[in-house]
Write a structure and sequence with these properties.
It is a single chain. The chain is α+β, with helices and mostly antiparallel strands. It has one domain (about 10-95): Orthogonal Bundle (Arc Repressor Mutant, subunit A). About 55% of the residues lie in helices and about 15% in strands. It has five helices and three strands, in the order H-H-E-H-H-E-E-H. A three-stranded antiparallel sheet has the order 1-3-2. Helix 3 crosses helix 4. The longest helix has 14 residues, at about 10-25. The mean pLDDT is about 90.
């Protein structure tokens, strides 16, 4: 057939990718990942940056952490998050490179 068959991807790899994409398939979660690309950021900082309630941000962060996309570190009463899985960063880079420019409104 084609050369593509020479590099068969195991179904388990498709399943892991699909699970990560399901978690990332929310605009707030993508925006959170974009905000976390440069440094560890607290829940409060993310909430202020995105204009979202703290509890909403915490739910999104916990969902991404549960899937191994983020890690957290507590310093006193503040919890800081950072991206530890490269897939959100790959997706964001793909979006930057291949998304059409925004339409003028």
């Amino acid at each position: 057939m084609t050369q593509a068959n020479d590099q068969i991807i195991p179904m388990e790899q498709f399943e892991r990718a699909a699970a990560a994409l399901r978690v990332l398939a929310h605009p707030h979660r993508l925006a959170i990942c974009a905000h976390l690309t440069s440094a560890q950021v607290s829940v409060k900082q993310v909430a202020e940056h995105l204009g979202l309630p703290h509890n909403v941000v915490s739910q999104h962060l916990n969902a991404m952490k549960a899937h191994g996309l983020l890690e957290s570190q507590r310093q006193g009463k503040t919890v800081y998050y950072r991206v530890v899985d490269p897939r959100p960063l790959w997706l964001l880079e793909c979006m930057r490179r291949h998304s059409p420019p925004p339409k003028d409104q």
